[in-house]
Specification:
By secondary structure, this protein is an alpha+beta fold. About 45% of the residues lie in helices and about 15% in strands. α2 packs antiparallel against α14, α15 packs parallel to α18 and α16 packs across α18.
Length: about 525
């Protein structure tokens, strides 16, 4: 219980009060930080006793996974040699308008789409329309980055193999554009972007590489990227329910994305940007993905006919560059990753994550087997375990987990929203206590609001400096952040943040904005105190 405050000489009690105020802020921050460690979930798939039939075992594993991780819908296909031996849908298309998922239900393939784009580009090469070793600027004259000399050396091959030097995750939203001129607007907006590495020097995965491949396709063919892919890839390969058109997917029957929001599963899909279609927005189903896997398992042959040159398929599946992941050497071809697991099994694969879909596509050439798994949610922290888990059951092998990007674990990130709101509440409580004590001091006439006709002295200089540090640091961080990202990396960090908020679960940005708002309010309050509050003589 606070004791009733009595008027006292300002020289001692006032300073003590102000130091207590600073202590309150420090304590609230320290207490808030202690909340976060308890908010990170974990776990892995474990297989209990299951039926003897392998397909029943696979059904049981999918059902167990969906139940434990609140996955609304899953699509699975398994190909052996040139035959689809298992194609099935599980669960529902949407929690808002539930319809059963089957083998014909379309899902967003996320970055698995890159293999489609890569094949589309190589078919242009095979047809003599483009040369993938020519600079991008040869086909797209407006493609000029901050270093015009370096950017003029970026070839189409560099884009296909992620060796262009173009930066990855944080720069991606810089390329989000929609509408008929999306590709041209995207190319123009990248004008200030800085390269992270010289072209051809180092592997760095970047969706912007495949955004730009879409611009190359449009420039070389005079068609929209969507129309070209439809006529050159989807139709000739018999992918009758594969599209880049959301309206067409709706008509055929599609699954909708889901996200975790404060621990609850909600239907929410990110906006579709035309410029991003080549990197992650092909939509397909289990049946068509069975044909896609068979195409690559069988050297470009489908239904006994050579539909794509075997050399083209081999080129896509052969590493053009290497990098290290979790201590293991991983190769990247064109739209496909290649590695060997700890058990010595070679796998050719690609994963995909959007904020509301997850996909894995995998070829096991030693077993003449291919598997694709797609989830219509990001409500699991272990989604990339399902494809190797199913492969283990089908082939009776032991396979490692497929890797996933750091930002893909939306469930884990969502769980931090509780901690962030706890921080916000603690900061608010601390601020309320600070203001209440200040009001008590003013009522006891130890302090007064600044008025010219009332004799009073300013707060001690040390405390004035201390109280203005948070606001100065806050403003400096914003200014420096903008300048550094603009000058060093060539993009507007606030545009990136804004575009990212469009796709992140609402719980994340609501919690983040609340905390930043409370820190700003604390900073403004402390600075305001130094301006309007005086010590009575």
């Amino acid at each position: 219980m606070w004791k009733k405050l009595k008027a006292a000489p300002a020289s001692s009690k006032a300073n003590a009060y102000l130091l207590k105020g600073a202590a309150i802020l420090v304590c609230t921050i320290c207490l808030a930080c202690a909340v976060l460690p308890a908010c990170s979930p974990g776990g892995q798939i474990t297989e209990e006793s299951t039926p003897t039939d392998k397909f029943e075992q696979m059904d049981a594993l999918v059902a167990k996974f969906m139940t434990e991780d609140s996955i609304p819908g899953v699509s699975v296909v398994v190909v052996k040699e040139d035959k689809t031996v298992y194609a099935k849908g599980y669960g529902i298309t949407s929690i808002d308008d539930p319809k059963p998922v089957d083998e014909n239900t379309l899902f967003v393939l996320a970055s698995v789409s890159k293999s489609f784009t890569a094949l589309g580009v190589l078919l242009l090469r095979d047809g003599g329309i483009i040369d993938i070793d020519k600079p991008v600027v040869y086909y797209v004259p407006d493609f000029l980055l901050s270093d015009t000399t370096a950017s003029s050396k970026i070839t189409i091959r560099h884009l296909l193999t992620h060796t262009s030097g173009i930066p990855g995750s944080l720069a991606e939203p810089q390329g989000y554009f929609d509408g008929p001129d999306a590709m041209a607007e995207m190319v123009s907006d990248l004008g200030g972007l800085s390269l992270n590495n010289p072209p051809g020097d180092t592997f760095e995965y970047s969706n912007l590489n495949y955004f730009l491949l879409g611009a190359v396709v449009e420039a070389a063919t005079g068609q929209t990227f969507e129309n070209y892919m439809e006529k050159a890839v989807f139709e000739p390969l018999g992918l009758n329910r594969t599209t880049l058109d959301p309206a067409q997917a709706e008509a055929w029957g599609r699954a909708y994305g889901h996200q975790p929001v404060f621990g609850q599963v909600v239907q929410r899909s990110m906006p579709v940007f035309r410029s991003a279609l080549p990197a992650g927005w092909v939509m397909s189903n289990a049946r068509d993905m069975g044909r896609w896997l068979s195409l690559f398992l069988n050297g470009g042959t489908l239904d006994g006919e050579q539909v794509v040159k075997s050399e083209t398929i081999e080129e896509m599946l052969t590493p053009a560059t290497y990098y290290r992941k979790d201590g293991r050497k991983v190769g990247y071809g064109m739209g496909w990753l290649v590695d060997t697991g700890s058990n010595g099994i070679k796998r050719i694969w690609h994963g995909g994550d959007t904020p509301s879909f997850l996909a894995d596509m995998m070829l096991l050439p030693d077993y003449s087997t291919g598997i694709t798994v797609i989830l219509n949610s990001q409500t699991s922290t272990r989604g990339h375990l399902l494809a190797p888990g199913l492969a283990n059951l089908f082939l009776d092998i032991e396979m490692d987990q497929l890797s996933s990007p750091w930002w893909a674990h939306w469930k884990t990130i969502d769980s931090f929203s509780f901690g962030l709101f706890s921080i916000c509440f603690i900061l608010l409580a601390g601020l309320a206590i600070f203001i209440w004590r200040l009001v008590c001091k003013i009522r006891c006439r130890q302090y007064t609001f600044f008025k010219p006709h009332i004799p009073a002295t300013r707060l001690p200089k040390k405390l004035m400096v201390l109280y203005n540090i948070p606001l100065a640091a806050y403003c400096l961080l914003i200014a420096v952040g903008y300048v550094v990202f603009k000058l060093v990396y060539g993009y507007n960090i606030f545009k990136v943040i804004g575009d990212t908020l469009l796709v992140a679960p609402p719980s994340i940005w609501a919690a983040g904005i609340s905390v930043l708002g409370m820190i700003a309010l604390w900073s403004l309050t402390l600075s305001t105190v130094t301006i309007i509050v005086r010590r009575n003589h």
